[in-house]
């Protein structure tokens, strides 16, 4: 079924529905910059986060996952935002079982992995929202889950909560690399700088900053994504 350009899912998954769109070039650049910045090390788990809410981290994580899968690398996108999960809405998937289900011992790993319908791309949704996401992510089950993901997939893209909650810092320390997403029209300088400092203080490997909703110029007339070291 062809998606229309005004369709919300079309806009959020543009790397799949319209791979030749100029907007997709930003995601392609992000993928290449991640590869170039980590030539000397093995980078398998990539966390995508933001200083605050609604700055584009989930859309960035989803399209980055699509770009990774296009390289025929077995990729999984995992929704670790247990407070405000969005991945199951973005991909229109059930959310009966997911990260929280595995973390709480309700189901085995095999029950939480879903086929996205896109070649080489799989999805793990957040699952039911737990009473205390921070406590759940602070258990040894997190390391067990990440080990399972590493064993089964070439690339693990983690959609994290924003850095205003403690969950994000726990996840950032576990990831091989982190990408920070900021909104050009919304994110103020101080929170952005503070977010970078938070990640560095936590010992996270900050790969770079994605500038979301950046106006590309009058001629193009659209918004896109820029990558800032």
From TrEMBL:
EC number(s) given by UniProt: 2.7.10.2
Domain of life: Bacteria
Catalysis performed (reactions): L-tyrosyl-[protein] + ATP = O-phospho-L-tyrosyl-[protein] + ADP + H(+)
GO CC annotation: plasma membrane
Family to which the UniProt record says this protein belongs: Belongs to the CpsD/CapB family.
Family matches, as NCBIfam families: eps_fam (TIGR01007)
Name this polypeptide is given: non-specific protein-tyrosine kinase
């Amino acid at each position: 079924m062809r998606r229309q350009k005004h369709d919300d899912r079309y806009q959020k998954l543009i790397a799949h529905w319209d791979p030749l769109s100029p907007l997709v070039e930003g995601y392609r650049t992000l993928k290449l910059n991640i590869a170039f910045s980590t030539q000397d090390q093995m980078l398998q788990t990539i966390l995508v986060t933001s200083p605050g809410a609604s700055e584009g981290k989930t859309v960035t994580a989803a399209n980055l996952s699509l770009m990774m899968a296009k390289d025929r690398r077995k990729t999984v996108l995992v929704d670790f935002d247990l407070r405000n999960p969005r991945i199951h809405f973005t991909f229109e998937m059930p959310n009966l079982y997911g990260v929280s289900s595995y973390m709480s011992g309700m189901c085995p790993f095999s029950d939480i992995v879903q086929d996205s319908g896109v070649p080489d791309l799989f999805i793990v949704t957040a699952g039911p929202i737990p009473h205390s996401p921070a406590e759940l992510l602070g258990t040894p089950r997190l390391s067990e889950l990440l080990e399972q993901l590493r064993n089964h997939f070439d690339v693990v893209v983690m959609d994290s909560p924003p850095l205003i909650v403690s969950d994000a810092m726990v996840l950032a320390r576990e990831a091989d690399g982190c990408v920070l997403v900021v909104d050009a029209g919304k994110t103020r300088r101080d929170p952005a700088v503070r977010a970078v400092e938070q990640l560095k203080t936590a010992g996270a490997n900050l790969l770079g900053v994605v500038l979301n909703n950046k106006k590309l110029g009058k001629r193009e007339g659209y918004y896109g994504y820029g990558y800032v070291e």
